[in-house]
Amino acid sequence: MQSRLLGSRLLVFKLIFLLVLGGTPGAFAAAAKWIELPEVKTFKGMEVAWVAKKMKYNGLPMSMQEFTADMPALELLERYEQYWKSKYDTETVRSRNGDAYVLGVEQKDYYYTVQIVPIDKKTSMGNLSVSLSPDKFKRSKGVKTEFPVPSSASQVSFIESNDSGVIAENISYSVKRTSSNVASWYESRMGRQGWALLRKTSEFGVQLYFQKNNQHAMVNIIEGKSFFNQSNVQVNWVKGNE
Question: Among 65, 89, 187, 200, which residue's Cβ finds the most Cβ atoms within 10 Å?
Fold first, then answer.
């Protein structure tokens, strides 16, 4: 069970935001405070671990857990649907994303989501999340992150997490530049802002590792295959203690 639980981390950020947010990245303000959110009910036979008890997706407060379950995916999905309908007396929303079954329900100020993927005929894995209801959350024109991002970047989004007081951001975007051009831009810009380049590798793209005082950042740049001179960029920025 433990090895399957660790493997389920691959699912964590893949799709639930599409259902929870119901909009495009960058639609929410980034100034929300860290808040305590309710937890999603679990059933017997589920092994659960926290991914992030406090996080924000483009400013929207969320929490997330991953799980493995000793029951088939559809059986678990139906148990959640029956439980939520009886508890909240409201309709749930079902959807599919590849092999994953997704179920969501809105109740008062919160939106609950479960994503379930079959492991085999008898077991499943996935994640549970809770967010403030997007309809209750103050919308903004765009995301604000202090980490350098080219002005021509598009589809910018970021996940901010608070792990026992250690604040980190995961930023992703696409830009119409080659990977080598983006890497050169970061080396120059980060150097001017006082960051030291610790290491540069070229494994499945370009990876840059920076440090500034107690802050660490890794920039992963992957050349797009579908469009000429386009790169997809992912940044992991550990900002340190709040």
Answer: 65
